[in-house]
Structure prediction request, 367 residues.
Amino acid sequence: MEHVVIVGAGVMGCASAMRLLQAGYTVTVLERALPGAESSAAAAGILGAQSEVSDAGPFFELCLESRNRFRAFSDELEEISGVSIEYEDSGVLEVAMDPSEGRLAVGRAEWMLERGLRVEVLDRDEARKLEPALSERIIGANFYPDDHQVDSIKLGRALAAAVARLGGTFRSGERVVGIASEGNRVTGVRTESGVIDADHVVIAGGAWSTRLHGLPPLRTDVRPMSGQIIQLEMRPPAFRRVVYGFQGYVVPRADGRVLLGSTLEDRGFDKAVTAEGMHRITGMAMNMVPVLGAGRITDSWAGLRPSTGDGKPLLGATTMKGLTMATGHFRNGILLTAITADVIRDLVMGNSPDLDLAPFAPVVEEL
Prediction:
């Protein structure tokens, strides 16, 4: 039975492990911290294929395909793990606060409607009828009924439980420093405590992915982009739908929690929550949903989004046989979990995925 070592136990690593275990592989997942404790747990959990992706193209299509698979993925994961990821078909309201934002929103709606996607273009009154908590200062909104949400922390826990129940092995506190290889084939990974042999290696280490020694030349590197989030308590819940603005977002949970986010900061691996960040986030949120001013701050955190130089994930095989990349998903990691897991399973098995991965190839094809 072939052995797959996965570097990184976030949602990408664990979802890939789940699919590979189902396909009959022996899987070991290595994690420097705890499974799902880094950027996966820090995410807001928006499945925003339409609200979060600004342009048409291959990446947009990848996001749509993952969104299409997510409901079935969620149901399957809950059955295996016994953990609900709180899948909510809430929809997303993209609100415009001024005429320039309104023009951008209308333009986005036009090309999405041409693509055959569901978008409802609402004026102020229509939007506030849908969500009365919205500010009277908005000028309109796009409603994306097919953009949903999950609880990212519960997603990480469910995936880790599923991997364990399917017979996968976790090695937490294992710091991977490089790739082991012979010639042009991967033979395992190098950790601070030694070499772990493997027939296949999957790199799903988020912002740390391209810091490993021995990697073949890649299309781009992955670096951290910090994002701060604030959690409020609103009881009873004041609104149901995700509110997405041009400066940030507000994600209501069914139990009264509300996530406000997020900053975008290039400050290395610093995960500090700052006064400036909190001021910016709360100001943005209350501008869109004034009632949030009465919310009680119960938590705050920062996560490190894995950002690539060209804005596209590193997803696919490398020039080193047996080495596959699943990283660099930036702001869309939760959304892309479902499709990434299927792609990694297919690639490790030697099958061609049922979508074009060329735009996300980890290496630059020679002319």
